[in-house]
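Hi R.,

Here's the chain you asked about this morning:
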Amino acid sequence: MSIKTKAAKLRFDLSGYYFFGLVLLVLLGFWPSYFAKFFNGTADFSFYFHFHAGVLILWMSLLIIQPILIRKKRLDIHRLLGKGSYLLIPFIFISIILLTHSRLPHQGQLTDDHLVGTFNSVKDLVILAVAFFIAIKYVKDYQLHARGMIVTGLAFIEPAFIRFTLRVISDPMMAYVATILTVYAVIIYLIYLERKQASARWVFPLVLALYVIAHGMVIFDILYYPFWCNFVTWFAGLPLTIN
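And the predicted structure, written out as tokens:
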């Protein structure tokens, strides 16, 4: 007589501890260009950069604290902080938009870096929006809610890791490829871990597909098509920031 056992669901209450690794990656990636400058007296960043860094630090703190609260069975505090995310996520979006705009020439010729940099910001905004929408729409479904929140953390891997690899690998293209493969490896590993999951298995494949589409647009030079150049030119001309 055979006994069918239900596949164990992935546990995400330990993810807060793993996100400490993300904090380390962010420190490694942004240390020379941001954090170290506060110690050597050369920090001359704009308000937009500080605003962006501040809200992302708060979000990473939330990603660490929330799963730990679940593990400690402090659901009351978890729900209270969760309501705060409704306020914090719009500030993250605003900070990305303002920082991206502040780096563009309000007048003058756009460079390849401007086109690619703006696209990367849009890509991050889309992935964050999709992930947070999943987390909120399925807030009562622990498996889907947790996956959505985790993806909001995964979105930080690429910006931090590319800065780290550029210091280790002299070839920018090789550094970019190494970063892409690392992001894919993390998501594919999560997909592998949940291979026996009965439900909620569509989140990570969806995010992987979004990354593949976005990176494919960069690799095949779609960003140099007139529609994107015109969009970035229009965006740069908006009165959003002061250089």
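The two ends are 74 Å apart (CA to CA).

Let me know if you need anything else.
M.
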